[in-house]
Design goal:
The complex is a heterodimer.
Chain A: H1 3-25, H2 29-33, E1 36-45, E2 66-70, H3 72-83, E3 95-109, E4 112-125, E5 129-144, E6 147-157
Parallel strand pairs in A: 1-6
Antiparallel strand pairs in A: 1-2, 3-4, 4-5, 5-6
Chain B: H1 5-10, H2 13-17, E1 20-21, E2 26-28, H3 35-46, E3 51-55, E4 64-70, E5 73-79, E6 85-89, E7 104-106, E8 110-111, E9 118-119, E10 125-127, E11 150-154, E12 157-161, H4 169-185, E13 190-192, E14 197-201, H5 205-212, H6 218-221, H7 223-227, H8 233-237, E15 242-246, E16 252-256, H9 260-267, H10 271-280, H11 292-301, E17 307-310, E18 314-316, E19 322-328, E20 334-343, H12 348-361, H13 369-381, E21 392-394, E22 404-406, E23 412-416, H14 421-435, H15 439-444
Antiparallel strand pairs in B: 1-2, 2-21, 3-12, 4-5, 4-7, 5-6, 8-9, 9-10, 11-12, 13-20, 14-20, 15-16, 15-23, 16-17, 17-18, 18-19, 19-20, 22-23
Helix pairs in contact in B: 3-14, 4-11
The chains are: A alpha+beta, B alpha+beta.
């Protein structure tokens, strides 16, 4: 790819990720579902506090236990749950702000683009509860006309013990 | 161990026992917020009882360790060169520094990062820098090993206590505690799946324990998981076929059960027939346990597909494939740790299915537990105001309507509608635990599993 091509792709990818973040902050969950590929895998492994010598056991691996290990059907269930009128952990709804930064395109292969980013999800609940979730995110975006579909999202959280009552927010 | 005498002066025996009235089901809300009562719980319940530490599969080789807690005391659970599992208080004898800062790992020994004192995997102090110079050889290392808890295991499940005078783990568990572990081992040889979910909820630990017996909340608390199509709550509820088993020292199991006549039909079947029937029965129906389960769990226990709590804080889920620790972190803070078990010989697709279920039901992002955490934290928060803490909680469902049956092996159980017999048994035992000054007091002054109508 030439430099202008790379710059253009980077711009397209960033704008897509920002638009997605705005959608989630605006609680437009149905619109968000439309951004997901049919075969999406949405995954957040469990991280452990380990010594330097044991870093090989820092993360759970695919197919092991995970905080999120969702396919499209499961993500639709999460959205339906939010819409159910009885999701007590989200009524009153959380106020969220999704930040995406340090965006780097790691790989471009055929119609799939692998993108790494740092994320910060701030959640404010009721009057006094705050959650700050930081981490690294690796997305696989698939070309779909003028836009993209999210084919894979891996969320590598920086917390080991989750310092929140729940994770009822979409990352 | 300190026995809470200082706190107990303000809370004499009678005032502690009166915090819960089993006759009316009224619970004094101060048990959810009072700092002194919380300190008593740490000393008289957690330090005194048997606390779940790990499953043997978590520590395969010498040097493998995990961190766990007895109340708020952090412990290192480690397998030594002889294959023994030790539970060591994670505090250097020199300045109190934490020796181990990781959650799990492999160690040859534990070296303190402050001055370099070195402890063997069995807790012996084996190295003190400057012993022959700065200490002039005038140093008895044998006196300064790490403090060790008593450790015993039942079927590969390791527990620890800080009380020298505690009964054996076997006796402590009693029939109900052994059925609880049996619910897991009925799957055969099991191992812990990689990855323990851990999160912090702003609630008192007891509301989280109370909830596990609570088959009343399922339809309402978890309505959104039902509406979303994740779980058919009506299918798992079996509100009329409920069984509550009550054991010594506060252990209890509450939830759906196989009616005796249906179990009698299962008893006629071979294991192959049971497997086939389990495969073809409607979704969300508990699998029919194999023949061997009856020896493990007894003729009453084998019928239970409810939720056991091994007192004080180990929940075994009805599937027998997960346990959850409720670890106290102050009157209004609790850590939840989820362990998932896999049958060792199971085919990979079944293992993946078990983990998929476990990932999506419980844990902080679990479609059920999201809403539990919210209710527990708000119950804790809304109960501690000067006026609101003077109101009692009402745990009176089914009082006077529970006919206690006795099984062949002496099991005590109540069958019928959804009830709060399990919760009442929990709080009744809880008052006895915090009122007792030591094990001999508790042994002499605790309620035997009931008979008659409760």
């Amino acid at each position: 790819m030439t430099l202008p091509e790379r710059v253009l792709l980077h711009y397209e990818v960033e704008q897509f990720l920002y638009a997605e973040a705005a959608m989630l902050d605006a609680r437009r969950y149905r619109d968000w579902l439309a951004l997901l590929a049919e075969d999406i895998h949405y995954w957040m492994p469990i991280r452990r506090t380990v010594m330097n010598a044991d870093l090989d056991m820092e993360w759970t691996q695919p197919g092991e236990m995970a905080y999120f290990d969702d396919d499209r059907a499961l993500l639709e269930i999460r959205v339906k749950k939010l819409e159910a009128g009885s999701a007590w952990s989200e009524d009153p709804p959380s106020r969220s702000r999704h930040f995406v930064s340090n965006v780097r395109i790691l790989d471009v292969a055929d119609d799939e683009i692998t993108v790494e980013a740092a994320f910060h999800l701030y959640r404010s609940r009721l009057n006094t509860e705050e959650s700050n979730w930081f981490g690294r995110r690796v997305d696989v975006l698939r070309r779909a006309g003028e836009s993209f579909l999210i084919a894979r999202r891996s969320l590598f959280l920086d917390q080991t013990l989750i310092l929140s009552t729940n994770m009822s927010t979409i990352f | 161990m300190a026995d809470g005498a200082q706190v107990a002066r303000q809370w004499d025996r009678q005032s502690l026992l009166s915090l819960f009235d089993p006759a009316t089901g009224e619970l004094d809300r101060r048990v959810m917020s009072d700092e002194d009562i919380y300190q008593l719980e740490l000393e008289r319940i957690f330090a005194r009882g048997w606390n779940f530490m790990c499953h043997e599969s978590q520590l395969k080789d010498p040097g493998d360790y995990v961190i766990n807690y007895i109340g708020e005391d952090q412990v290192i659970v480690v397998r030594d060169e002889d294959g023994q599992i030790n539970v060591l208080l994670n505090t250097c004898r020199h300045r109190g520094n934490a020796l181990c800062r990781a959650e799990q790992g492999r160690a040859k020994s534990f070296v303190c990062s402050y001055h370099g004192w070195n402890y063997a995997l069995d807790g012996r102090l084996i190295g003190v820098p400057g012993q022959s110079t700065y200490y002039y050889k005038d140093f008895d290392r044998s006196r300064l090993g790490l403090a060790k808890a008593r450790v015993e295991n039942y079927l590969g499940f390791y527990f620890a206590t800080l009380a020298e005078d505690a009964p054996s783990l076997h006796d402590y568990l009693g029939d109900v505690g052994r059925v609880s572990i049996g619910m897991i081992v009925a799957h055969g040889d099991v191992e812990v799946a990689p990855g323990i979910m851990k999160n912090v909820i702003d609630c008192n630990w007891k509301i989280a324990v109370d909830n596990l017996f609570d088959w009343y909340h399922v339809a309402y608390s978890h309505a959104s998981a039902d509406t979303a199509g994740f779980l058919d709550t009506a299918a798992i509820l079996h509100p009329k076929n409920q069984m509550v088993m009550l054991g010594e020292y506060g252990h209890a199991i509450g939830g759906p059960a196989v009616p005796a006549d249906l179990q009698a039909r299962f008893d006629q079947m071979t294991d192959a027939e049971r497997n086939e029937a389990s495969r073809t029965q409607p979704p969300n129906t508990p699998r029919i346990r194999p023949k061997a389960a009856t020896e493990l769990m007894g003729t009453v226990g084998v019928r239970s597909h409810g939720h056991p709590n091994v007192f004080p804080n180990l929940w075994v889920t009805m599937s027998g494939l997960q346990v959850c620790l409720r670890l106290p972190r102050g009157p209004a803070k609790t850590e939840l740790w989820w362990f998932t078990f896999l049958p060792k010989g199971a085919p990979e697709p079944l293992k993946r299915q078990i983990m998929w279920q476990a990932n999506h039901i419980f844990g902080p992002a679990g479609l059920l537990e999201q809403d539990d955490g919210e209710n527990w934290s708000q119950s804790t928060r809304a109960s501690r105001g000067v006026a609101s803490r003077k109101l009692g909680n009402h745990i009176n469902m089914g009082i006077g309507h529970g006919q206690v049956s006795e099984g062949e092996a002496g099991e005590r159980f109540v069958e019928g509608w959804v009830s709060e017999h399990g919760q009442r048994w929990l709080y009744r035992a809880w008052t006895e635990w915090i009122a007792a000054t030591d094990w001999s007091d508790l042994k002499a002054n605790h309620s035997a599993p009931p008979s008659g109508v409760i």
